Amino acid sequence: MALTLHPIPTGNFKLDGGAMFGVVPKSIWQRTNPADENNLCSWAMRCLLVESGDRLVLIDNGIGDKQDAKFFSHYYLHGDDTLEKSLHKAGFGFSDITDVFLTHLHFDHCGGSVRYGKDGSSLETVFPNARYWSNQDHWSWATEPNPREKASFIKENILPIQESGQLEFLSAGQEQFLPDFDVIYADGHTDKMMLPVLQYKGRTLCFTADLLPSVGHLPLPYVMGYDTRPLLTLQEKEHFLKKAADEQWVLFFEHDVQNECCTVKHTDKGVRVDQVFPLSAL
């Protein structure tokens, strides 16, 4: 059965440009991602809704709204989009979601999983009828975090999913989630991040998550300072981009504030952007 896809923008936030581009000098990365006076660049939190038969799968869900003002003051949330508004625009509500597929458990990807209940103090899952999908290796990585990533794995975003009984794990190495919905694992950014690869309108589309945050990250050395294993990310990007160029994949960006999708091509400088376009152009 053919998939139907809906981009789900959940708002934008800001992160330090130097952290987002690692060893690449600002004089170079600011050409594609201009920074403000505080060296911060704007980034999207663009999720993806997948209709597959009787399944309605939400891939990631943004930063959420339950953290305190001090937390949000670091990230300068902006834009008019929210998770709820975007789902409603697509014709759905929280209770319609059957599956929440979490690429990984950093706060800007899974914060919308959990909210405070009506009493204002207890935590509850946002999607009451959904199964939440991770994998055992990444779940262990997130719930027993290393000091480098500890601030990105927020227990309020993660533990209530398990406590609700809604948590499910993909089997070790499982490469298909649903028909026309496969999974690539990547370990450079964080352990066992999952990238959905979808068959859509005769094309292969990959939700790039944090392997490729934006068009500006296509050159191989452009690796985030947040990555736990940057040399491994470089290798994973090289393999991924070669395949994407060879097979004319569509790349769907979670964090690129300007560009929703692109294709890539081989050049004498390596794999580079070919065309950029919205998902609706397919």
TrEMBL record:
Transmembrane regions listed in the UniProt entry: none
Keyword Metal-binding: yes
Span of domain Metallo-beta-lactamase: 44-255
The keyword Hydrolase is annotated on this UniProt entry: yes
SMART domains listed in its UniProt record: Lactamase_B (SM00849)
Keyword annotations from UniProtKB, A to Z: Hydrolase, Metal-binding, Zinc
Signal sequence, renumbered to the chain: none
InterPro entries for this protein: MBL_superfamily_lactonases (IPR051013), Metallo-B-lactamas (IPR001279), RibonucZ/Hydroxyglut_hydro (IPR036866)
Family under the similarity heading: Belongs to the metallo-beta-lactamase superfamily.
Name listed for the protein in its UniProt record: MBL fold metallo-hydrolase
The species this protein was found in: Rufibacter sediminis
